[in-house]
Amino acid sequence: MSPGDPTGSPPPRQDARRRYVWLAAKLAFSAAILGLVISRNDPRALLAALRGISATAFVSSAGLITLTAVIGTWRWAAVMQAYGAERLPGPGRLLQLYFMGFFYNLWLPGGVGGDVVRGVASREAFGDAGATAGLTVVFVERLCGLLGLFFFVGVSFSLWPLPGVQVPVVYAALAISAAAGGVLAVALAPRLAPLLPGFLGRIAARVPTLARRGPFALALGLSTLTHFFTALSGHVLVADLAPEVSWTHSLTVVSLAAVSAFFPLTHAGAGIREGAFVQLYAPLGVPGAVAVAASLALFATQLVVSGVGGLVSVLRADAPRPATLETEAPRSEP
Questions:
Q1: Over the stretch 72-108, which tens digit does the pLDDT of each residue have?
Q2: Measuring CA to CA, how many Å separate 149 from each of 180, 182, 225, 251?
Q3: pLDDT of 298-319, one tens digit each?
């Protein structure tokens, strides 16, 4: 850091070193947890389960993942409208950027984050506010997804509890309450900023003022819909190997396991997601090897969909390039 640096931000090399160390830690932790889960199952049974997943089930799961990406694009557009976007990119452009973000998040962790790609590339929607507003709105859109997941988990576990799993109803109520509280916090963030301490206050101050309530409510509803189809994408893989499992129970299991994707020490929830599949499908009579195979296949469908969609988007002539994005992305305050 130079003496005249008013921001106090770390030098680029030091910042890059931290990112690589963090990436290495995430990959090592994910590999260790995944290896532990796999080691607790018969390798031959796991291999047989992986081979037993039909092409029809895999393609169906991939189709549902693609549908969630389309709905996610719609949600992103709704959030931009809710926060006063002056002019939205066309549907094709939004879908292109969404798939690029999906691709970067799953295939290039630690490089240019998919959220940065979407935020900077969509800067034209916010006029003078530019990339800063675009990045903040992508953050809000991701938060809407998390709130929708909490709501979906609470409702699904209330309606379709797992046999033998005794979870007080109050926990489901707490999940729903947390989702509702989060919605209010996001909507009122600019007003709450002066009342919050230090770091939380600075984050809240960066959230734009909610301009339209209708699109914001639509975005929350679409968030719940994306988790519904994500859960179904996991169910078709499990049901291919264990037909006795009902789709309603899979809504509960897969949505609970999806929380693992937000665990910061893993890459996309790898390892923790497989462990959750094993533990939560066990009361339904699903062998551990089958649960692990279904979870790995679900991650594989996400990799395929994000890979194909992302590569098609990147190969387009008007696709933003990583070097450009890194240059134009605004620096975070310390």
A1: 999 989 988 888 877 788 888 888 888 888 888 888 7
A2: 12, 12, 10, 11
A3: 999 999 999 988 787 777 655 5
- Burial-class residue 10 by CB neighbours within 10 Å (0-12, 13-18, 19+): middle
Instruction: Please name the residues in contact with 148: beta carbons below 8 A apart, sequence gap of 6 or more.
Output: 179, 220, 222, 223, 224, 226, 227
User: Phi and psi (nearest 5°) for 177?
Assistant: -65, -40
**Cβ atoms of 57 and 240 closer than 8 Å:** yes
Amino acid at 27: L
Query: Is residue 266 a contact partner of residue 33, using CB atoms and an 8 Å limit?
Result: yes
The number of beta carbons lying within 10 Å of the beta carbon of residue 105 is: 21
Report yes or no on 9 lying in a domain: no
The structure's pTM equals 0.80
Token couple for 324: 């450009």
> Cα 288 to the chain's mean position, in Å?
25
Helices (H), the chain: 12-39, 43-52, 55-82, 91-107, 114-121, 130-159, 169-187, 189-192, 198-206, 213-241, 247-258, 272-281, 288-315, 322-328
Q: Collapse the DSSP code of 7 into the 3-class scheme (helix H, G, I; strand E, B; otherwise coil) and give the result.
A: coil
Q: What angle do CA 272, 113, 19 make, to 5 degrees?
A: 75
Task: Write the CA distances from 206 to 106, 141, 182, 271, integer angstroms.
Answer: 26, 14, 16, 34
- Residue 65 CA to residue 124 CA, distance in Å, equals 28
- Tell me which residue range forms the domain holding 76: 41-327
Domain tally, the chain: 1
Residue 116 to residue 130: CA distance in whole angstroms: 13
What are the start-end ranges of the H helices in 160-271? 169-187, 189-192, 198-206, 213-241, 247-258
The verdict on residue 194 lying in a domain is yes
Residue 213 falls inside a structural domain: yes
Q: pLDDT tens, 260-270?
A: 777 777 777 88
Distance (Å, rounded) from C-alpha 149 to C-alpha 157? 12
Q: Assess if residue 322 is contained within a domain.
A: yes
C-alpha 154/C-alpha 229 separation (Å) is 16
